[in-house]
Design a protein that fits this description.
The chain is of the alpha/beta class and 399 residues long. It has 3 domains: 2-65; 73-271, Rossmann fold (3-Layer(aba) Sandwich), CATH 3.40.50; 276-398, VC0802-like (2-Layer Sandwich), CATH 3.30.2130. It contains 17 helices and 16 strands. The strands form 2 sheets. A 9-stranded mixed β-sheet has the order 3-2-1-4-5-7-6-8-9. It starts with a helix and ends with a strand.
């Protein structure tokens, strides 16, 4: 397969047609350049998605792309680089292993810090793609083993500095699951062996996972990283170290998908959140919405205590102040006026447009649009939220 795909005329065809909708293209084409339409469409779609998700790979020559479901599940370049930075800042870089290599994106970035890295993957096709792509990208310190994670840890005796594992979050029938015990492999059952083999274990999970339940299921969790890219929560990382018996530190990390940099991080202990006091106040001149990582991590009261802003309502994660707070980790709005959600509102807005943000508000976005005639877009915002005295809708501009 690789020999056919890597011919220069095939690679040129893929790059020239990557912008096309592969489903429509499939209906119109039979075999092209000796390649089946389905395989060629897979490469075209993969390259197009990689341009945003994995730009350094998309720029490289002769990369082979997997089926859409595998590309969907793989880390983005931003999150893969973040994991690599977590590992690079710690000890134990002589030997590491990825027990669920898949298409090999995480392994490529993680292996950069190690003298020796092992990729374990039971799907031989995915493992072959990972090996090919790693070689194309210049990675030479990696070994590849076509076996399951369970089989590998059962027979391996050499200690590791780091073990990385990303259990599959899909079961039979392609049904998504978010409980650790429902994922494959079952890291809860495997963790005694993982902790016996490695100085550090890093588990990647779905952003939908309940962090508190995961902390009850796992042991020796030193750090939990909530990773968001461009204000969308992408994954949770649980860092386990053998013998650790203290309280886990939660890190709410906000990344930029364009620069691959960490824009902000807020670290805290769960016990500190319980002890923190969130002050309340009537809505002031400025409103604040914490970023997705902080909200997922659950630092609701500490936002108030740390940045000196006041919570609108116990169940509304929107904050307020009379003076603007610099460096707040999230969106900051200046209130222009309080408005009513009726048909007169659209006529007062440029082109009848505003971006609608609702937090603990009795109406949905669709209902607000219907009641007001406002079209989403433009530079202004309608922010609706419940506060201590009721509910309100404010016309705002974002700072």
């Amino acid at each position: 397969m690789f020999e056919l795909l890597l011919r220069s005329e095939v690679q040129q065809y893929i790059r020239q047609h990557a912008h096309l909708d592969e489903k429509s293209w499939l209906l119109k084409n039979r075999e092209v350049l000796g390649i089946t339409p389905r395989l060629l469409a897979q490469q075209m779609a993969g390259l197009r998605k990689a341009m945003n998700k994995l730009p350094s790979w998309a720029l490289a020559e002769n990369i082979v792309y997997p089926p859409a479901i595998n590309l969907e599940q793989t880390s983005s370049e931003a999150t893969a680089r973040f994991k690599a930075s977590v590992i690079a800042s710690s000890d134990g870089h002589e030997r590491g292993v990825d027990l669920t290599c898949g298409w090999g994106v995480d392994s490529f970035f993680l292996s950069e810090s190690f003298s020796s890295w092992t990729c374990v993957e039971r799907d031989s096709d995915l493992l072959a793609m990972a090996q090919h792509n790693h070689h194309q990208l210049g990675r030479v310190n990696v070994r590849y083993e076509n076996t399951s994670a369970e089989a590998w840890i059962a027979h391996n005796e050499k200690p590791c500095g780091w073990i990385f594992i990303d259990p599959s979050r899909r079961q039979q029938g392609n049904r998504k699951v978010v409980s650790l015990t429902d994922c494959e492999p079952d890291v809860v059952r495997m963790q005694p062996r993982l902790l016996a083999m490695a100085t550090n274990v890093l588990i990647k999970t779905s952003p939908l996972l309940d962090i508190r339940q995961a902390l009850r299921d796992l042991t020796c969790v030193q750090n939990v990283y909530v990773v968001a890219v461009d204000n969308e929560c992408k994954e949770l990382l649980f860092h386990l170290t053998p013998g650790f018996a203290g309280e886990s530190t939660l890190h709410a990390c906000q990344l930029s998908g364009k620069t691959f940099e960490e824009n902000s991080r807020f670290s805290f202990l769960g016990s500190h959140e319980k002890e923190a006091v969130a002050t309340g106040a009537q809505p002031g001149r400025f409103l604040y919405e914490p970023n997705a990582a902080i909200l997922k991590a659950g630092a609701f009261k500490q936002v108030s205590a740390h940045w000196g802003v006041h919570k609108l309502h116990a169940n509304t994660h929107v904050y307020t102040s009379e003076q603007v707070v610099a460096g707040f980790p999230g969106r900051v709005f200046e209130v222009l006026e309080m408005v009513k959600p009726d048909k007169s509102l659209a006529a007062r807005l440029p082109n009848g447009q505003a971006n609608i943000v609702l937090r603990n508000y009795p109406l949905t976005v669709a209902e607000v649009k219907k009641k007001t005639g406002v079209v989403e877009g433009g530079d202004l915002f309608l922010l609706g939220a419940r506060h201590a005295s009721g509910v309100a809708l404010w016309l705002c501009r974002r700072l």
